[in-house]
Design goal:
Two copies of one chain form a homodimer.
Chain A: E1 5-11, E2 15-22, E3 25-33, H1 39-54, E4 61-65, E5 68-70, E6 75-77, H2 89-97, E7 101-105, H3 106-117, E8 126-131, E9 135-141, E10 144-145, H4 176-180, H5 182-195, H6 201-206, H7 216-224, H8 228-252, E11 256-260, H9 262-266, H10 270-279, H11 284-287, E12 291-294, H12 301-314
Parallel strand pairs in A: 1-4, 4-7, 8-11, 11-12
Antiparallel strand pairs in A: 1-2, 2-3, 5-6, 8-9, 9-10
Chain lengths: 315, 315
């Protein structure tokens, strides 16, 4: 007889990951590009198919999705980068895969993953910040997941670090996401080289003269090779991320910060810069004894956390 | 037989308040100016005397103090505006008044007061921000007080709203406290009129030509009368406070925000400006259903909360 299993789903702006998870270990994993142009129907179709591919037993399903979620209704609320209307994703998916479904923000699920099976095992006070296509967060407070009144607690990506900063997709100015997310740095670099083709000959070459084709990975690669524009973007990311993480520390006084996300680790020295910048800014008693750790589960933190929550709830 | 009572102490930078509290009600209250020049010894002496004045029964004592506190040790850590060394205030006071003492930050205690006996009765998710000599905070998460790993959670005054902002006493740049605390606005206005005596003839008159004598109350009074410099200060306070409160909402998704502090309510329209500015900036699902309330206990929130915590712990 096999161990009790559950299914974790991580719906990011760029990729969807689905895994069958047993004892906190992803034993079967599927990865696909998100069918973003298909809208919520397309993504729902895609997720249902992927879930059925890894599991035929109607195991409970946990879904982390890049957006704000209403935990009572199981609704995705204005995922800021998807621009969906309010979608009752939990009920729709449940009816398609004929299994119970629990829905939360993607980085909240990644936080659960790191807390239960990753860098934060046994930790009672913890905050996570993940830098990918967007910037997301999650926290454990007093040994319990921070959910907030409606289930949209932990949106550290929408801490503003400059009241006069660039406009974020959420509407306010200077969110750390507007400085540091993969999506925003691509936009920033595209604008810079569209306005001035000489701003970065290296990036122009990497994108074969097509600014629209620029990816955050290219910017990171150019930074690695010393490209001035890309290094300036990296420095801005470090400044914004350090400020936001220090504010989270001053607000929550966690014993551990977990940093993750492919975009964070793509840039040379960025992780170290964020650690140093953060420690230089937070209150001394909050900094003492604080551990800053790298995500242990990497891009599978979300599916592990989502599956863990599904099992705890419906297992 | 009288109801079980406990003693609440609120040690601010400017005032000390001590009260005997019964059933959440302060039945006897003492207020004095803080003997700040006397250092930690002077303040300890003053607090001990005041406690013994309101109570001869060795009732449990709760102390809220403007500074960062280590809850395990009962130590006041580098209260940023007092500049004390680490002081084991809890043990020292306990030995003087011969009663058990519990120690926390002053606004954390005010948060307990508002939560148990004030604006937030019955609320499970709540955040407080108080604007006085400093800017402090506190929160209730999942029906429990946010304490953090070492007891210094809730320092929302040290959320930075501008990475390039003025230097705060804590060392970092652009903390909301550096823009909006009574202490900082006095400093700012003093500098402005020392550099240019014509910057505010009204303030020069109010302080009788002595910039050193300027208080935040004078700045508020001048703003009320239309003084340009004072209104500019008020607008900066509104911008910084709105940004910090919106970030707290995005991070914690509380069902209630409680705003308090004499400095906040002294300025014309400031409270309304902060509410509007906050609601215009926070994530929509976090804003829906959110209540923003004025502190119900005013300047006694701290003593009520401190006495409540003392009774819960030692009653």
């Amino acid at each position: 007889m096999r161990e009790r299993c559950s299914i974790g789903v991580d719906v990011g702006h760029t990729n969807i990951r689905v895994a069958r998870v047993e004892g906190g270990v992803p034993v079967e994993v599927r990865r696909e590009r998100t069918d973003a142009p298909g809208g919520s129907d397309g993504v729902l179709e895609q997720v249902s198919r992927m879930v059925l591919e890894v599991d035929g037993d109607r195991s409970p399903v946990g879904v982390g999705i890049a957006g704000q979620c209403d935990k009572a209704q199981g609704v995705v609320r204005c995922g800021p980068n998807f621009f969906w209307p309010d979608v009752p994703f939990q009920a729709l998916l449940s009816s398609r895969v004929q299994a119970p479904v629990v829905l939360r923000n993607d980085v909240v699920m990644a936080t659960v993953g790191e807390w239960k099976h990753g860098a934060g095992k046994g930790v009672e006070e913890m905050a996570c910040l993940f830098v990918g296509t967007g910037v997301g967060g999650g926290a454990v407070v007093g040994g319990r997941l921070l959910e907030g009144a409606t289930g949209c607690g932990g949106h550290f990506g929408h801490i503003s670090v400059r009241t006069d900063g660039p406009k974020c997709t959420c509407g306010r100015r200077g969110c750390v996401e507007a400085f540091a997310s993969g999506c925003n740095i691509e936009e920033q670099v595209r604008r810079a080289i569209t306005e001035d083709a000489d701003a970065s000959p290296m990036l122009m070459e990497l994108c074969h003269g097509e600014p629209k084709a620029i990816s955050s990975r290219m910017v990171a690669e150019a930074a690695e090779k010393g490209d001035t524009l890309s290094l300036r973007v990296r420095d801005q990311m470090a400044e914004a991320l350090s400020s936001a993480v220090a504010s989270v520390i001053n607000a929550l006084n966690p014993e551990m910060i977990v940093l993750g996300g492919t975009v964070l680790f793509g840039f040379p020295d960025l992780y170290e810069m964020v650690i140093q910048g953060t420690l230089g800014q937070c209150l001394r008693p909050a900094a003492e004894g604080l551990r800053i750790e790298r995500s242990a589960l990497g891009d599978l933190a979300g599916v592990v956390g989502a599956a863990t929550m599904a099992l705890e709830r419906y297992g």
